[in-house]
Structures are given as C-alpha cells and as structure tokens.
Write a structure and sequence with these properties.
A 9-stranded mixed sheet has the order 3-1-2-4-5-6-7-8-9. It is α/β, with parallel strands linked by helices. It has 9 helices and 9 strands. The protein has a domain of 162 residues: TIM Barrel (Alpha-Beta Barrel), CATH 3.20.20. Strand 8, helix 8 and strand 9 form a beta-alpha-beta unit.
Length: 235
C-alpha cells in the first residue's frame, strides 16, 4: 500500500508572505504540528482540541496526491508551497510525491514553510528551491527548548533557505537578530513579519517594527492575503 499523507487543503492563491510575496502559487497544507503557537492562524491543521481532525484532515494516498496536485496546478503557476502545520513531520512520504510532480512539471519551484525544529533529509533538500524557516520567538508562548533547535537551524543555513520571524514589536526584532546571528544567517537572509490576523493592523505593525528591522539589516514582509481577503481559509 502507498503511504498515506494527512492533507488539510490544496488551493491556488497568491503567496502573501516572505521572499515570494505576490507570486501565484499552489498551496499544499499538511496536518499536524509539533508546536502550538498562541497566535497560530492555521490551528485547524493541528489543534484537535478545538477542531475535529476527521473533518479537517483527509488521509490521501501518495500517488493520488501527486495526481491531485498535477491536476489542480495551472500552467501559469510555477510555485508549489508545502506548508502546514509542520510539513517536515511527513517529509519521508512527501519526497516521492514531489518527485512525481516535478517529473510532470520540471518548471515548478518548491518552497517549504517550516518552523525549523526538524532537519530536512538530503532527499528533500534536493527537491526544494527554498526553505522558508520560521523559528518561534518568546511571543509564541512556547518554551525555548521546544521552539529553538540551534543545530537544526544551523543545518538549514547551509541549504537554500531564509528565516522569517513573526514579530509583534521592536523588541521581537532584536530577539530575532540574536537568533539569526547564533545560527549563521546574515541579515539579508532574514525577514520579519507582523503578528496579526487583521488586515487593519498590518500597516501599523510594519511601521512599528520597520526602524528596528532597518537597523538589523532585515527585510520586512507584509501579509498580502490578509490585506486582500482577511483571515479566510484557502486564500
């Protein structure tokens, strides 16, 4: 039997965050996460106390998932975003899916959004154009020993990757700078992004953190999907 993969949703939209912001993409969201950030905006992918896993997650055969993504991927879209939850929990079963997809669409770039606590296998690294690694800061409400794995982040620094920190104010930017420095990421490979699920707050939070980000040499990410569609699933 082929491996079963916990799929929450697939949809085509614009990438709203980070270095590929504004680019059309197909999102493949997988279920389950090894962290539980207080501000998480995709709790339906892992919080089985608040959501019904049977309703939110479909266990999909790996071969069927490859075919589904190929079928749903428009010819005009050249980016696949693997996200979660924490997609690296399922990386071993995802690798053959990505291989099959890229055989049909060799033009496709693959980005993986991860919290940076699980190291990627060499098999996954060779299929991924960019790892968008989002280490969690104190504002996540998670103990540091759970959310920061320095050896793992240092390994990501040797792969095509950037760091993307969720920040609520200037102090978070300084914390992000300390983390980035400790794991070998220079400022030009670091983004900071406002912690909000409300479109009205995006601009004011960017203004609040911009001076600290400029001093640190970081880039600042907006959240285009919030500005366009608000806190709506599948956008």
């Amino acid at each position: 039997m082929s491996a079963q993969i916990p799929v929450v949703e697939t949809f085509v939209s614009l990438q709203g965050e980070g270095p590929s912001a504004g680019e059309p993409a197909l999102f493949l969201r997988l279920g389950n996460c090894n962290l539980n950030c207080t501000w998480c905006d995709t709790r339906h992918s892992w919080d089985w106390d608040a959501f019904d896993r049977a309703e939110e997650v479909e266990n999909v055969d790996a071969r069927d998932l490859s075919a589904r993504v190929i079928r749903e991927l428009p010819d005009t879209v050249h980016l696949l975003v693997l996200t979660g939850g924490e997609p690296l929990l399922n990386q071993n079963v995802v690798v053959p899916v990505l291989r099959e997809i890229k055989e049909h669409r060799p033009d496709l770039r693959v980005e993986v959004e991860t919290n940076g606590t699980i190291a990627p296998t060499p098999s996954l690294v060779e299929l991924v154009h960019l790892f968008v690694v989002s280490p969690k800061l104190h504002n996540s409400g998670i103990a540091e020993k759970r959310r920061l794995r320095v050896p793992v982040l240092a390994r990501f620094s040797e792969s095509p990757s950037i760091l993307k920190f969720v920040v609520a104010g200037p102090a978070d930017v300084q914390e992000a700078a300390d983390v980035a420095r400790s794991v070998g990421f220079p400022g030009d490979r670091v983004w900071v992004m406002p912690e909000t699920t409300t479109a009205a707050d995006v601009g004011s939070l960017i203004a609040a953190v911009a001076p600290a980000a400029i001093r640190a040499g970081f880039k600042v990410s907006s959240r285009l999907h919030l500005l366009a569609w608000g806190d709506t699933r599948g956008t």
